[in-house]
Structures are given as structure tokens and as C-alpha cells.
Structure of Response regulator:
Amino acid sequence: MSFGQDLAYHLPFLRRYARALTGSQTVGDRLVKHTLAAIVADPTSFPTGIDPRLGLYAAFLSNWQDQDGDELVDQSDGDERIARRRLSRITPRPRQALLLTEMEGFTSEDAAYLMGSDRAEVEALVAEALAEIERQTHARVLIIEDEPIIAMDIETMVRDLGHDVCAIATTHDEAVAAARLHRPTLVLADVQLADASCGIEAVKDILTDFHVPTIFITAFPERLLTGDRPEPAFLITKPFQRSTVKAAIAQALFFDDATVPA
């Protein structure tokens, strides 16, 4: 494989990194093109004696300068735009360290090389970035669950994850009233409630008042995942694992536009 072909293989991944780093596809692609133009203009400037992928990222970072203001806000639609808005609010070096290690899969040592740092600092920067994401996605949670033991279990998990539980409701009417009173930023809802009503209907009524991301909990997911009608974006199956709840909450909050800091 030629040098050019070797670099070409890694370009889609570099574009992904550049877009996440800058928060903009336009800005990221422009920086990648600038990097390639610099390599073509002066091939001797390309790092030697290291893995070509590592060298390519090093060349890119040497050309990268912070963007600010509106350039950091991706203009695309949907979940990806929301995620990039969150990333853009992490200061540059922690964002670099997080993306290089968690998204691009570089080791802490390789990330340290790319950032002109050392392993300890990279690990500290990653921890800082993760803490900022957790701060951004802190939630006030409404639990809609009619089984007391399960409700207590969910409440403990939610609090252990660093979120607040604003209320626990067991019926449709209680859920709607609690939502209107507390304005939660996340709802965890059982599908079947104590008054024989449906948790989905309770959430629908809540959503007529305001937007809030929702995770549904059910022992019978096959009844909801039929493909015949709109399905819940986030669904946990009973009995559930703590890791499942944690992952669902993280996803629901990270991709929710209402909880992105202004």
C-alpha cells in the first residue's frame, strides 16, 4: 500500500475527529483539507518513525487552531447536533483528550504524544471532560412506578448516579400532577401502573405540557417493539441491571436538546 493510500484509509476517521473537535462539519473538513495540502506541499514535514495514523493526527493537530462562537455549533439536525453542542462546551484540551482516547481509540500514551503532554495529564484531562458531561446532564427525575420495591431500587440507582429524584408516582393522575409541579428533566416510567392505566398515556399527557426525555420500563418489551406504531426511543426490560439503567439515562440526557446548557 502506498503512502497516499495508507493516509486515505484513515481520512474518514480524521474527518470524524475534526468534526467532533470543532463542533462543525464545515470547519472540521476545512482543517482536514488544509492539513492534507500542507502534507502535499511539504512531505518532509510529515512525522516519521511512527504509525501513519498517529502521524496524520499529529499533522492535523499542528494545523488546528481553536474556533469559537457560532463556528463551534454544528448546524446539522437531530441527535448529532445536540451531542456536538455538548462537546463544544468542553474546553479545548479536555475535549481533545476525551475524543482521542474515547472516540478515536488512541492509548493515553499516544494521546499524550499528539497533545505534547504526558500520560498523567491526558488522564486528568479526560476525567475533567467526563465530569463536565456529567454536569451538563444532571437531571431531576420523576419515577412512575407502582411497585414500591422496584421504585426504591430505581430511586437508589438514580441518586447513586448523581441525579435528583423529584417525585415518585404510582398512578396516571399522580404522575401528571407531579410532572406539572416539579418539571422534571427526565422521566422513568413503568408501562403498567397501579390504577390499571398505561404509563405511556401518562407520559403523553405530560408531554402536552412540556418536553422531557423519557425511559420506559416494562416486563414485556415485545408488546411495544412491534414496528406497527411509534416506539419508545429508550426502553428497559424488567428485571434490569444497574448498568442498563445507567446507560439508558446517559443516552437519553446526552442527546436531549432541552438539557444542553445555553
User: Anything to note?
Assistant: The chain has a mean pLDDT of 81. The chain has two domains: 3-136, 140-259. Strands lie at 140-144, 164-169, 186-190, 214-218, 235-237. The chain has eleven helices and five strands.
